[in-house]
Request: fold
Amino acid sequence: MSGALHDALTDVAGLTVGHFTHPARATGCSVVLCPAGAVAGVDVRGGAPGTRETDLLAPENLIDRVHAVLLSGGSAFGLDAAGGVMRWLEEHGHGYAVGAARVPIVPAAVLFDLWHGDLRIRPDAAAGYAACAAASGAKPEQGNVGAGAGAAVGKLFGIERAMKGGIGSASVRVGGITVAALVAVNAIGDVIDPADGAVLAGARTGADSRHLLHSAAALLRGELPARLQAGTATTIGVIATDARLDKSQCRKLAGMAHDGLARCITPAHTPHDGDTLFALATGSSGEAANLTLIGALAAEVTTRAVLSAIHHAIGLPGLPAARDLGGAL
Reply:
């Protein structure tokens, strides 16, 4: 691939990204389309995941290519949006050929954003279809869109002290190979700038406060959350490369990308998060993979995508963003 980088997942040739953001409530979904098929893997690190088609991605299982990956709000209800992605792909002739039929393969992961507004409003099949219809190879919007529309971070001490999360993207090109990430940041932990350890967005000292608590420091002081509710967080994302990888290598790539979450989210991978990262390899560069190099780059772009999500986030009522605290990057 040639030309200027968008610093986004769409820098990987053959991939497009589309968002659907619900007009009536802060929720939505985001889709990464790879209609020609991409080798895929997944690594689930959180204790409360909501996923679809992850077993299929195990290296020993039959199907080795997927046609899209869905990231959605709405908790487990949001998995319905994958049906709309399948319908769009089928209508456009994409999928795994089984006799006369074509079956689109669409792994998915969801995050919990059922905090506010009419909770009966969540992504459905129509939302997934709309995200596909909106997909393009341009630099995708970031912040309060798609799966990041209702995302929040810093929930360790309760949603009332949390801040706005969002969705972000980043890419890098080294030695003719592109590695990129798209991440929806909805963590129970704080988001940290690894350059200096400063908290960018996270738990606040009180429900009406604009001062950051620094959750890790609070825990070390012996300040403990009054309650923790399982399954109310989750950071989900897609890591992609144009290098040639097999399914086993894609799974390892997804695992190495999780290092990028651990660098900038604390705590990460908790029993209350469903942290899940997918990896896609299109092979469009024609370059064989040095998995050590690509994995290191995957961790880097994952961190950068998380920071970009926080930078682009816009506050909601009762849920300020980093920019509201003077913490924009």
